[in-house]
Specification:
By secondary structure, this protein is mostly helical. 59% of the residues lie in helices and 5% in strands. One of its GO terms (cellular component) is cytosol.
Length: 458
């Protein structure tokens, strides 16, 4: 059967294919091959620039032509590499042969042919490829999308900073807050984790078959190979790892995945809370005329965007967690279990961006329902037991908590019941009058200013 979005096994390449497009140039087979080409060319360029005996030095123009092979590498070029691989049955060796073919007609570069992949094991190339992919994914896709999602929540926080809302702890009526302040909490949490994620260093190694520069040193013992290899790794924008086995141990990938998992967990928490607020009627969803909420109940406008986000975040985190736990473990100097696992890095990120887009789409449909917010607050006089007993404490009235507990716990409390209680208290008249004038919708503490504080975040 011909492969298409309709026949793809994964919804990331099928139903949701368009939502994951930004990751395809990075984590696809084409992306992996292109990154290998860039790494090989960077290594070759570094060798030519270090005055190593027998390695020809080429001028700036020739080095620019060398770099252009990677810059202009496209899907058609990747297909040429795959054709070579069909003969070599080795993916990294196919890159070496491809590059030899590309420079053979260039008089200046042809002399470099035998130094392509010099002293390298395949893992020298591959570990750098995956770190490059993670670097690109973070800078080009994940951080811009996350910033946009955070901004969507920030806009809600500011718009509804003063929209009083009955809080619910343990699902029961609790001290009032504002709808905006509850959104601001997620802005703050996500901003903190976003900053952590942005700072994670991505490491790379280029030190040979078991990490000792064995082949490098036997060929050119006089060369500072750790220094040369560090230069090449840092040219790629990565941090040099000087002490490894055959493989870079992937601890940085685990750290990267765990940071992203924390972000996803916070987004999932927000999706569930917003789903609940929609269910309570605190949020309305703008209906789209052409959409259908139910195949049999025409009135429904379901919170499907937040449900879609939650489902995809679960798949994303399961994949990211597996890789974070698997990749840093390798038998002795290396086994091959990381190889096939690494090819699935894009899966976790694909479901992450699918989820984030669904969540953001859902945010765009939300409108507060002031009537429902006000109604719930107006019917929750029991929440004022907290300020009443706190004022009683200030004025030295004995057992204030116990007296309010006896009055309110598990009982329907009306304004009249609470006011009768307040009038009997031995309090200064001004204080008593202040309590009698307090309404649930006024009992917001610093919620409004806390919500507004996220305007300066970032």
């Amino acid at each position: 059967m011909e492969l298409s979005p309709l026949t793809a096994l994964s919804p990331a390449d099928g139903r949701y294919a368009g939502k994951a497009d930004s990751l395809r140039p990075i984590f696809s087979e084409y992306g992996l091959i292109r990154h290998r080409v860039i790494v090989e060319l960077t290594w070759l360029d570094t060798l030519t620039g270090n005055a190593i005996p027998d390695i020809p030095q080429v001028d700036t123009a020739a080095r620019e032509r060398l770099a252009a092979i990677g810059e202009n590498f496209d899907v058609q070029a990747a297909e040429q590499v795959k054709q070579i691989e069909a003969t070599t049955n080795h993916d990294v060796k196919a890159i070496e042969y491809y590059l030899r073919e590309q420079i053979k007609a260039d008089a200046d570069l042809k002399s470099l042919s035998e130094f392509i992949h010099f002293a390298c094991t395949s893992e020298d190339i591959n570990n750098l490829c995956y770190s490059l992919a993670l670097l690109r994914a973070r800078e080009e896709v994940l951080l811009p999308m996350l910033d946009q999602l955070i901004d969507g929540l920030r806009e809600l926080a500011l718009r509804y900073a003063d929209a009083g809302m009955l809080a619910r702890t343990h699902g029961q009526p609790a001290t009032p807050t504002t709808l905006g302040k509850e959104m601001a909490i997620f802005v703050n949490r996500l901003q903190q984790q976003r900053n952590v994620f942005a700072q994670i260093s991505l490491l790379g190694k280029l030190n040979g078959a078991v990490g000792n520069y064995n082949a490098h040193t036997v060929a050119y013992p006089e060369v500072d190979w750790p220094g040369v290899c560090r230069e090449a790794v840092e040219k790629l924008g990565l941090q040099f790892n000087p002490l490894t086995t055959q493989i870079e141990p992937h601890d940085c990938i685990a750290e990267y995945n765990h940071a992203l998992m924390r972000i996803n967990t916070i987004v999932m928490d927000a999706a569930r809370d917003i789903w609940g607020y929609i269910s309570l009627g605190y949020f309305k969803q703008r209906a789209v005329d052409t959409e259908v909420g139910s195949s049999t109940m025409p009135h429904k406008v379901n919170p499907i965007d937040f449900e879609n986000a939650e489902g995809n975040l679960g798949i994303a985190n399961a994949t990211l967690d597996h890789l974070a736990g698997k990749l840093p473990i390798s038998r002795w100097q290396r086994d091959l279990t990381d190889s096939t696992a690494l090819r699935n890095l894009g899966v976790g990120f694909a479901h992450t961006v699918i989820a984030w887009q669904a969540f953001e789409k859902g945010l765009g449909k939300l409108e507060a329902n002031p009537q429902v917010l006000a109604r719930d607050l107006s019917e929750a006089w029991e929440v004022l037991a907290e300020p009443v007993q706190t004022v009683m404490r200030r004025h030295g009235i004995e057992e204030p908590y116990e007296k309010l507990k006896k009055l309110t716990r598990g009982k329907p409390i009306t304004k009249d019941v609470l006011h009768d209680f307040i009038r009997q208290l031995e309090l200064p008249e001004a204080t008593k009058e202040k309590l009698l004038n307090l309404r649930p919708e006024d009992y917001l503490g610093h919620a409004i200013t806390l919500a507004q504080s996220v305007a300066k975040a970032r």
